[in-house]
Write a structure and sequence with these properties.
The complex is a heterotrimer, with 1 copy of chain A (about 240 residues) and 2 copies of chain B (about 200 residues). Chain A is mainly alpha-helical. Helices cover about 45% and strands about 5% of the residues of chain A. Classes of the chains: A mainly alpha (about 240), B alpha+beta (about 200).
C-alpha cells in the first residue's frame, strides 16, 4: 500500500495505556497485566491494519508489557534473609503512568481555564495581528477514542478477508470528498454515520483514514461530549 | 491630587495600555506627570476600589490581575455573545498541546528530551507549534553534553491563560485512590458533611 | 433577561469592539445570542444609563457617541498622562538584531552556527529574541550530524516590512539601513513587553 497516515500530535503509548485502564475500569495500582497487554496489542494491531505510522515507542511499550507479563508468570524467588524483597515487575510502569497522568490532568485543567479570546476578552485594539496558522492543530478527540469507535463500527460488518482488501481501489480521496459534501449539507454528523454508505471493511477503513486526513488538514474538527460518548464531526469552515 | 482624580488616572492608564500594566509603571507615569511621590501601598487600595466598582452588577468587564499587571477583561458570562462579535474562531488547544504546555509550565526549565521521557512519545512538533504561538520560549541551553535547548513559558502564556504568575498554577494533583474519590462522590451526593 | 445582565452585555460588546459599535449591531448580536426582540427605544435608555455611570467622578474613561456608534474613550483630562504612556516606547531594536534578521531572511534555511560564522560573533541571544518577536521561526532540523535547528522568517516578518513575498526583499544594504521607525512600529504592533 502506498499511503501512510502520520500521527504527530496525537498521544503516545502511555496515553493508550491510560485510555485502556479507564475504558475497562481497571485499578491503576494493580493492573491485570495479561488483560492490558492483550488490549494494548489489539489496539496497535488495529492501527497497523490502518497503516497508521506507529511510532517506535508503541512497539517498545508492547515489548515492555510482554516482558512484565512473563516476569509475573515466574514463581517468586525465595527471598533470602537480608536481601531486599523483589519488586513488583509492574512498579516502574505504574510509576511512569502516574507521573504522566499528573501532567495529563494538569493539561486538561489548563485547557479549562478562562482563556483570553475564548472566555473573556480585553479591549479591542484596531491594529491586531491575525495569524492564519494560528490554531494548534490537534483535534479535541484523541486518536484512541476514534479507534474505539471504529472498532465498534467494524464489529457490525461481516468480516471480510481484511488483508486482501485492495486499498488503492477504494480511494481515500473519494471518501474525503464524500465527507466534505455531506458536511456542507448537514453542518455536523456523527462518527457512526460516517460509514453509512460503506459496506465492506475496506471501505470503512478508507472512510476512517479520510477522516484522519481531514483532521490533519484542519478542515474538520471532532468533538466528544463525554467520555466514551458520541463523537461528532463538524466542518471548520462553517464558523467563518 | 484629589483621590477621585487619581483613581480616574489609574483607570485611564490601564484602559489605554495594550498589555497588562504593572503597578510600578503606573507609579512611574503618575509621578512623571503630576510630580507626585506615590507608594505602592497607596496605589493598591485604589486598585482594589476600582476592581470593586467594576465587579458590581451591570458592568460588562472587570479589572483583572494578569501576567504581573492589571488589565480590564470582559466577564466570562458574556463569552458566547462576544465570540459572535469577534466572528473569529476562538483559540483551540488540543489535548497533546495542553499536555506539553503543562509539562513545560510546571517543570521549566526543561529540555525536549525530558518532555518526551515524561510523555513517552516524540513531542517535537508540539513544542514547535507552542513556540510559534509564543506560549513557550527558548530559555537557553543546558550545560550538559550536547547542550540541549531548554524551554520555559512566556508572558503571553500567562496572559492567555489568565494567570497572575506561575505560582498561581494549581498544585499538581497526586494520584488519589479510586475508593477515596468514590467516597467523596457518595458523600456529596448524599450531601453528607466531610468526615 | 434581567436589566443588569443586559446592560453588562452591552458594555462588554462596546468594550470589546475594535471600532465604534452601532446600535443596530448591538441589537442584532443580542437578539442572535439571547433570542430577545429588542427595540431601539429599549436600548437607548440603557446606553444613557451606562454613559451616566461612567461620567461619574473617579472613572477614567466614558462612553462616547462617535462615527455613528458607541465607544469607550478616556476623559480628556488625562490626555497628557496618556501621551506619556504611549511615548514610552520599548527599547530600540538594535543593529545586531537587524543584521541577524537580514542574514536569516536572505540565507534561509540557515542554522545558528551559519549565522555566527557569517557575523563572527555569538548570536544565540539575538536569534532567540527574533523568535520571541515572531519574526523568525524554526523550520526544522538539518540532516547533518548534531541535527542543528534551521531558521527562516515568518509571515509576520513579511507583513511588518510590507513585503509581498521573500523575492521582494530589498538589497542587503538597504535592509540593514531600514529606518528605525519601522522597527519601532514592529514592537508596538506586536505589543511586546519591554525587555
Amino acid at each position: 500500500m502506498d499511503y501512510e497516515v502520520k500521527l504527530d500530535g496525537f498521544e503516545g503509548p502511555l496515553d493508550l495505556l491510560l485510555h485502556l485502564i479507564k475504558k475497562h475500569e481497571l485499578d491503576i495500582m494493580n493492573i491485570p497485566i495479561a488483560l492490558i497487554t492483550r488490549q494494548y496489542v489489539d489496539s496497535i494491531e488495529l492501527m497497523k491494519t490502518m497503516n497508521l505510522d506507529i511510532a517506535g515507542e508503541f512497539l517498545l511499550m508492547a515489548a515492555t508489557l510482554m516482558h512484565i507479563k512473563s516476569k509475573m508468570l515466574l514463581p517468586p524467588e525465595e527471598v533470602e534473609e537480608g536481601e531486599e524483597e523483589e519488586l513488583d515487575p509492574r512498579e516502574e510502569l505504574v510509576r511512569r503512568l502516574l507521573e504522566y497522568k499528573k501532567y495529563k490532568d494538569a493539561g486538561s485543567q489548563l485547557g479549562e481555564r478562562d482563556i483570553l479570546d475564548r472566555d473573556l476578552f480585553s479591549k479591542g485594539f484596531s491594529e491586531e495581528y491575525d495569524d492564519e496558522n494560528d490554531d494548534l492543530v490537534y483535534p479535541e478527540v484523541g486518536l484512541f477514542d476514534l479507534l474505539d469507535a471504529l472498532q465498534e463500527v467494524l464489529k457490525s460488518v461481516t468480516p471480510s478477508i481484511a488483508h486482501a482488501v485492495n486499498m488503492e481501489r477504494i480511494s481515500i480521496k473519494e471518501k474525503t470528498e464524500i465527507i466534505l459534501n455531506r458536511l456542507k449539507e448537514e453542518r455536523n454528523m456523527t462518527f457512526q454515520s460516517l460509514f453509512d454508505n460503506d459496506s465492506t471493511r475496506g471501505e470503512i477503513v478508507a472512510s476512517f483514514l479520510a477522516l484522519l486526513e481531514l483532521i490533519k488538514m484542519r478542515t474538520v474538527n471532532v468533538f466528544q461530549g463525554e467520555n466514551f460518548g458520541v463523537i461528532r464531526i463538524t466542518s471548520k469552515d462553517l464558523l467563518h | 491630587m484629589e483621590k477621585n482624580a487619581l483613581k480616574g488616572a489609574i483607570e485611564a492608564l490601564i484602559f489605554t495600555s495594550e498589555s497588562p500594566l504593572k503597578t510600578e509603571k503606573i507609579i512611574e507615569l503618575i509621578t512623571d506627570e503630576y510630580g507626585l511621590e506615590l507608594e505602592k501601598n497607596e496605589i493598591n487600595p485604589l486598585l482594589d476600589e476600582i476592581a470593586g466598582d467594576f465587579n458590581a452588577e451591570g458592568r460588562g468587564f472587570s479589572l483583572t490581575e494578569v501576567a504581573g499587571g492589571y488589565q480590564f477583561r470582559t466577564k466570562t458570562t458574556y463569552a458566547s455573545l462576544l465570540q459572535k462579535l469577534k466572528a473569529k474562531r476562538p483559540p483551540k488547544f488540543g489535548r497533546a498541546a495542553m499536555e506539553v504546555l503543562a509539562i513545560i509550565a510546571y517543570r521549566q526549565p526543561i529540555t525536549r528530551a525530558e518532555v518526551e521521557d515524561l510523555r513517552g512519545v516524540d513531542s517535537g512538533g508540539v513544542v514547535r507549534s507552542l513556540l510559534e504561538k509564543r506560549l513557550v520560549r527558548i530559555l537557553g541551553r543546558k550545560e550538559v553534553p550536547g547542550k540541549p535547548i531548554i524551554y520555559g513559558t512566556t508572558k503571553t502564556f500567562l496572559e492567555i491563560f489568565n494567570l497572575r504568575n506561575l505560582s498561581q498554577l494549581p498544585t499538581l494533583k497526586e494520584f488519589v485512590e479510586l475508593e477515596e474519590v468514590e467516597v467523596e462522590r457518595v458523600q456529596s451526593e448524599l450531601n453528607l458533611p466531610e468526615s
